[in-house]
Structure formats: C-alpha cells, structure tokens
Amino acid sequence: MAGESPVDIRGFVLEALKISGADFREVGEDLILAEVTVEIPPLFFDPPRLEKQTLNLVFDAEAAGRYPGAELVARNTPRLAWFVDGIKKRGRLTLQTLVCDPAAAGEKLRACRPGLPAGGPHLKCSEIFRPWLLVNYMVARYADQLWEEPVSLGIDMSSGRIHEGLFALLAKASMRPGVPAGQIARQTIPLEKAFALLREFLTEKIAAADRSWYENARRCYEEELFCLYRYYHEKTGVSSLNPEFTRKAKELYEQFRPRIEVRPVNFGLIYLPEFLYTAKEGTIRFCPLLEQVEEIPEGEPVEGVPIEESAREIHYISP
User: Fold this and answer.
1) Is 308 helix (H, G, I), strand (E, B) or coil?
2) Range(s) of the domain holding residue 289
3) Given 91, 123, 148, which residue is the final one in a domain?
4) In sequence order, what DSSP letters do the residues of 3-59 get, joined into one string?
5) C-alpha span between 158 and 193 (Å, rounded)
6) 62-110 tens-digit pLDDT
C-alpha cells in the first residue's frame, strides 16, 4: 500500500480482490460487496474445508454508520490483516514500479561517494528503470518435525545478478502499480531462464546450509527402528520378515525420512530506478534501493528502450 488513508486501503483491497479472482461489486465510493473463499480450520474430526463468504466492506467510520452491518476495513483492523495475509499466501503476481525522488537519490549518492561533484554543470543526470524478477519461496524441511523458512530472491533481468533480501528492502520503499513511464533497461534474460537461475542459486544455498537437522532425524530414526526391532525379536521372537514389523518399519521410515520441498509462493516484476550521472571523469550508475554504485566503462551503451518496446518484450508474463 502506498499509504494508510481510506482511499489507499480501499485501492489495496480492490487489488487484492482482483488478484484472488473474487467476485465483487462497487456501490458508490464507500461500499464494496465481495464474495470470497475462506478456509475453515479443522474441528474435532472434521477436515479443513473451503466455503464462500459474503463481505460488505467500508473504509471509514462515517460510511460504516450509513451502511448497517458493513465491516470497517481500516488500519489495525482484523479484516485488513486478513487481506494482507491472503496476499502473502495466495497472491501470485504483481507488477510494480519503485518511486524515487531524484534529489534524494543524489543526496544518497553523495553520501556513498563524498568526492562526487555537488551538481550543476559538472554533473548530468538521467533516469532509467531496470526490471527485476522477485520470487518469494517457502523452503520446507520435513523429518519428525516440520521447519519452514521463507526465502526472498531477486534477479536483475538485464544482467542476471541475484540479490537476497530484496523483499525486505521493497517493504520500506514507495511503490506504485504498473510499468514506469520513461526509459527501461533492455531485458536480456528470458523469464524461464531467470527462474532457472534462481532455482540453481537456491539449490546451492540449501546444500550449504546447516545439516544438523538431517543428522538428528537419521539418528532418531535409527533409535526408533532399533526399539522396534528389539520388541519384535527379544520380546515376541517374531522374525524380521513378519508383515506387521515390516509395515511399522516403513511407517517409521516415512515419519523420519529427511526431505526438502521448495514452493514458490508469489512473484513480481519490479522496476527499480537507476540514475546515470555523467561528469568529465566518466559515467556512473547508481541504484538508490540497493545503494550500489557502478562505474560504466567508456563505450558501454547505457540507453534504455522506449516503454512501448519494453512492454512488448514482457507480454508473456501473466498471473
């Protein structure tokens, strides 16, 4: 959300309803009637199930008084938290542009490079937007217990550079939906290859992670299997070929078998602004969000592509 005013929250709820595919109808500027699918948790011996639920939503206290029975969606309300949680769990795709003030970017750059000229005729600035693919994964480790870890990865669709923790940086930034107006860096990496590079990076990250959970699960499995073996052999004298022993041994194996599952939760195409500063000494590229300063070699093209051409290049991305 760009802000927390009733107008901002209403816009966010409309986007959430569109993303989830819910049926809804706007009644004037105050009321939204929506039919959503909710998950009913298990109760005693009943399994979890999905049910349709009708919501009457308003976004300020005055409107709530005009529509009896309507639910107020405002800051710190349970319903707003429900929509945010739903986006985190069920939202598949977003298209956003980061908004950055050029003057603020210049101040941040001079903080990173104190020797940079203060501006004026010595420093020429232009803005270009670079497309990034952001993917939020859930890494689940199964054994006798379940451990889940969210992992956020971003990849530059122009260079292939991968950045961890991009989602946390974006959470503090100002965003607006849609494609930026202006120059966009040319996308050179197809979407399929970008996903493959992220999977390769995540596979290496998982392989290098602490494996103590794996060893603990194997040790617990061996201990439980030994106890089962003793019960069937020392106390009952039954052979290990007994079907009941074999069945219980297989159940133990499935219970303690270490395995890892990686599930993409949602993803987005994010346009990050970069500023190109040209001085007598050369040209530098600065990304305010990542606080990255890069000197551009002489002769390297730095121009972007017009918005119409860039939009054609990414048309294959769909929810």
Assistant:
1) helix
2) 94-208+261-313
3) 91
4) --SHHHHHHHHHHHHHHHT-EEEEETTTEEEEEEEEEEPPBTTBPPEEEEEEEEEES
5) 12
6) 888 899 999 999 888 988 888 877 766 655 677 889 988 888 888 888 7
